[in-house]
Amino acid sequence: QASGRSADAMASSGEVQRSLQAVAQGLRWTYALLWQLCPDQGALVWAEGHYNGAIKTRKTVQPAVAQAQAQAPAAEAADQARSRQLRELFDSLAREAAAGGGPGFRDVHGCAQEARRPSAALAPEDLTETEWFYLMSASYSFPPGVGLPGRAFARGGHVWLSRANEVDSKAFSRAILARVLFFS
């Protein structure tokens, strides 16, 4: 699901994270993303996200079902930590791609960002396919009316996606990436 709601409408980053976590866990989604308008680019860019899928460690992959069965406060904290680590890894990779970065940098979308300290706990080789898809989603931007998030923004409402594996790449621009990672 994509929503035209801006991250500025939420009170704090913590509230955004808790809301995304509640949606992803309550609906048993692999992830939930919030897009916001980047005034520099005039397009929606990834603002925040919560990853609720399988987690790969250097030795094993923990399925999302096993994580959900834990249902302890520690498991929720681990989900939040993994989402934060994925965002920090993306920011770190974006800084490298932006040729040096510094205290402030422009992300892959061209929007000004504050530098975040990279996570020493996570490296690209530590990711599952679904974590890669989640992370790669951050590099997308959607002008109003383009792609599912852009259409939701232009309409000022929600756009629901079902049977994602059958969706045309014109409607769902990340479909090609999803097919490569999950259906080949």
UniProtKB/TrEMBL annotation:
Highest taxon, organism lineage: Eukaryota
Protein keywords: Activator, Transcription, Transcription regulation
Every Transcription factor MYC/MYB N-terminal domain range: 17-179
Keyword Transcription: yes
PANTHER family recorded: TRANSCRIPTION FACTOR TT8
Protein name, as recorded: Transcription factor MYC/MYB N-terminal domain-containing protein
Source organism: Aegilops tauschii subsp. strangulata (Goatgrass)
